Amino acid sequence: TDQSRIRNFSIIAHIDHGKSTLADRLIQRCGGLTDREMKQQVLDSMDIERERGITIKAQTVRLIYKAKDGVEYTLNLMDTPGHVDFSYEVSRSLAACEGAILVVDASQGVEAQTLANVYLALDNDLEIVPVLNKIDLPAAEPERIKRQVEDVIGLDCSDALEISAKTGIGIDELLEALVTRLPSPPVKDPSDTLRAMLVDSWYDAYLGVVILIRVMDGTIKKGQKVRFMATGVAHEVDRVGIFTPKGVMVNELGPGEMGFITAGIKAVSDCKVGDTITDERKPALEPLEGFKPTVPVVFCGLFPVDASDFEALRDAMGKLALNDSSFHAEMETSAALGFGFRCGFLGLLHLEIIQERLSREYDLDLISTAPSVVYKIKLNNGETIDLHNPADFPDVTYIDTIQEPWIKATIMVPDDYLGPVLTLCTEKRGEQRDLTYVGNRAMVVYDLPLNEVVFDFYDRLKSVSRGYASFDYELTEYREGDLVKVSILINGDPVDALAMIVHRSQAEYRGRHICGRLKDLIPRQLFKVALQAAIGGKVIARETLGALRKDVTAKCYGGDITRKRKLLEKQKEGKKRMRQFGKVEIPQSAFLEALKMG
Ligand code: GTP
């Protein structure tokens, strides 16, 4: 392909501003699919993504557009995940492009993720074409929102396009703008040494691991032996293709082109996003810039509710890991919850998506322990350990200092809800960095400890702002903190699954809260039960569960006998899932409930 006729671009947007709808419209306009094939939101291939409206995996589509100058251009549209948890993947997708369409909902305006994504695009030196979407809506105010984009982002909007991805208004103008305003890839000699960026990979039941690439230098061909520079492994390319969005095989991809390869690879763990693929026989001296392995930042334990589901869970975890190289899982055992896995995620949304896939696609009923972040603990002997699990917290006498991860959070919220949002951030140990206004919307920037954010920040933020606040964050640094491990004891026995690491100032409140909840959740026993929260040997909260003879039929007042029988059946069923703590038997459901509120 003539390199001057290629345009590689992404669409960046806040969630729900219309990225997928616009992608569909562009594909349709360029005839990539017949109407019959034109399913809604073709780029979102996984069911869950479609339902949640979140694009997780980047994919790319090659479109052929005949411009007004009569020339046919190749437009490579790269889909990017929109959420902060996947910001590294977004950044790599953007690095594979020369331009981006910035979509802003003309009835909503700039949101936290609009900003985050624009910054990533600017970091990657992309030419940005601003687009105001949903102008068919009566509530659309394109002029006002253009001014907002100029004020907040500093992006010139005099040439911004007004479109409706839904009805098709302005789509032709947009396609023309892509050709005239976006740069073509730098012109390179196709016979140069191969360097292609690995943008994404996923497991396909028929093809094995499919790798999405952007060729930067040289040419990749079927039959070529290639090396992955970060992992050092070599494979022979057995297919080269493009998506239109249907997969179409081609012989080769040259400089500036995007497409996919397969190379008989079994596991996505060999395919690191951002890695450089080069020729095995004539390898490049330097990899492409910017590769960094993704590291999980949020951890939690996942356990089957029914112990007999463990093998099924193990199997499902293996399958998920096949498709998601940023998902980590290791076997773990807990006295309270039995056999399960300690899992690492890129963030809370990533955690939620995996949990949901496990329950939906694999029909597994799971308990998850409270999410926790990675602490760096410096020991007296000079050694530093990364702590993923509160259960592994070392004896305090060996600890010199503990550091926790901090984030820079950007929150956009209508003025009316600013007060409660600031209160929430302060309560979460936040430090305000900036507060600016755009019309009646405030933009606040806070430094916050990630451990407070994984607790219940999202839910609280949504509720105090009635859902109007948008939120985005990036990890910034580790800071020393006065952190303690709070253990929960039942009649003196610590319950591993309920242990948590919290700031000392929050320890008593959290301890009290959880003991109070357990008191309601644990059925009374034949003897008194002490419920305690403790830091080391020091009890900081205590509740006592009084003794009572348990008689489930008491509620029936000697009435209907079948109902009585049913209750007894149910009690028997519940017994099966009891966990023994010293003399105390606790239904697993009590842990589940206790964990729900963190
Ligand atoms: P994520 O996949 O969650 O990132 O969202 P998205 O940005 O891809 O948004 P999506 O395309 O799913 O659109 C969100 C909602 O806005 C859907 O209900 C669309 O039907 C609607 N929508 C998108 N474009 C337009 C438009 O031009 N006009 C109107 N009225 N609605 C639109």
Structure description:
Belongs to the TRAFAC class translation factor GTPase superfamily. Classic translation factor GTPase family. LepA subfamily. Its EC number is 3.6.5.n1. InterPro entries: EF-4, EFG_III/V, EFG_V-like, EFTu-like_2, G_TR_CS, LepA_C_sf, LepA_CTD, LepA_IV. It catalyses: GTP + H2O = GDP + phosphate + H(+). One of its GO terms (cellular component) is plasma membrane. It is a single chain. By secondary structure, this protein is an alpha+beta fold. The protein is built from 13 helices and 34 strands. Strands 11-10-16-7-8-15-12-13 form an eight-stranded antiparallel sheet, with helices on one face. Strands 2-3-1-4-5-6 form a six-stranded mixed sheet, with helices on both faces. Strands 22, 23, 24, 25, 26 and 27 form a six-stranded antiparallel sheet that branches. Strand 31 (529-535) and strand 32 form a beta hairpin. The chain is globular. The model is unreliable at 50-56 (pLDDT under 50). It binds guanosine-5'-triphosphate. The site of guanosine-5'-triphosphate has 19 residues, from helix 1.
